[in-house]
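Protein 1 of 2
SEQ + STRUCT:
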Amino acid sequence: MAFSRVGEKMFVKVLCHLPTRPVLNCGTNVRMFSKGFTPLKSNVWFLSLVGIGTGAVVGAGYSYLKSKEPQTPVLTIQKDLPTIKSIPKMEVSRKVVFENDSTGLRLKLFQYATCPFCCKVRAFLDYYGISYDVIEVNPVMRQQIRWSHYKKVPILVAENQDGCQQLNDSSMIISALMSYIIDKSESLTNIVNFYPTMLYKQDGYEKTEILNRYFLMCQEKNQDEKTKEAMTLERKWRQWVDDTFVHVLSPNVYRTRSEALETFNWFSEAGEWETHFPAWERKIVIYVGAYAMWLISKRLKKRHNLKDDVRQSFYDECNEWMKAVHKQGTPFLGGEQPNLADLAVYGVLNSIEGSRAFKDVLSHTKLGVWYWSVKAQVNKHKGNDTLKH
């Protein structure tokens, strides 16, 4: 489901060793970190819905009160992602296979079909023609990721001769894979070690932050200043997607109760929930989820300082992005081909393509030409051509 990270966590409520050598970076900055920075009867069905609905309201209210408490983060530990021997066998929802894939990677993507962060990863994999298996995670039970300590999606698992390498967080996944396909002198496992996870507690909740997640850990020869400036710009807009742009989505797609229900019905269709989940689970997610996210969207609007008319905030951010693209004088921010920032913006927008909010933004901004151009590049796997050179 296309929840924001905050919205996803709230919806669930309602229903290390750091590298000791310099971190290599294809951009302008080279970072170093020290070790010290460390089938039911109708009445039962009705009561179930009432219970869950009541929990949604109470949970949202409790979360709102918790947000008013002082923020006192406490750093506890940092760690890498170890290689794990194996993961439980489970049914693959679908296989995405590209005949020209030369990476040699065997990937499994644990996802929600319309999660913006998952769509971002799929946009990257599809653009570069990297084959992968999709495992659709049940948004209610989440049994497909019970094996993982990390409970968010996407999760990418790369199988290798030593076991399975887990990668968490959409931006880290993309940076690590891009680093690997640019320079295969380092194994993917070694590259992952340059993205340590910082664990800390804030107001009683454990939170994580992945360091270096917008940086590529590779060495390219003959980099000129223009290339370095382009990569710095790319990192800036990739971070903007995660820190700013994605937060305008939920308040817009869940703006009214009718829009929220429309959005969840589209999620069901796009994610093929009828195929993957029992009818009763699907109905709970659609009706209770839509109502809960409509309530939560009000808080998200306030938290992220959106305008009273949240559509205007959406238009503003899209215009900001298009201004940056037009400044380059090329079809994409990356020039004649999309770069990682183009793919990130496209990916999160693709998660709401069937919503009323998406149709409105196409009507009120100049986003359309750029969006459909990136989609054409992704669908034709044009990035695979660049890997051959």
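Protein 2 of 2
SEQ + STRUCT:
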Amino acid sequence: MRNPNECRELARLIKGKTLHPNVDFLITTNQLVYAQAEDEGLIEKIEQFGARFSTDICLCMLNESMFPESTKTVMTNSGKFAHYGPGLINKGVYFGSMEDCVHSAVLGEPTIQKPHWLASGVTTSNGI
């Protein structure tokens, strides 16, 4: 998580939900964001959901040993990790929004919604 706003969004998305028992929910962030989120009571809420935190580690430093042995695939909302992750952790990687990650973690299987900008009838500012 890059900033406390992402922690707030995650806390909102997980409210009233339960992590699937076969899912390991790992969050990477830095100590400053973690401390700010902790001061707001967000860390406790997120950890009660079943997530775990790793601080001060770049996503590109993750490796296979950071995941349970039974892990076959991971899901991320980080484009950087979606690109580099498969080679770093030797697992399949799904890319989606934070909402997709939460929904998948609750269901225990990857679910990805089509981004609103790909929905039919949506055009860019230049009319394309």
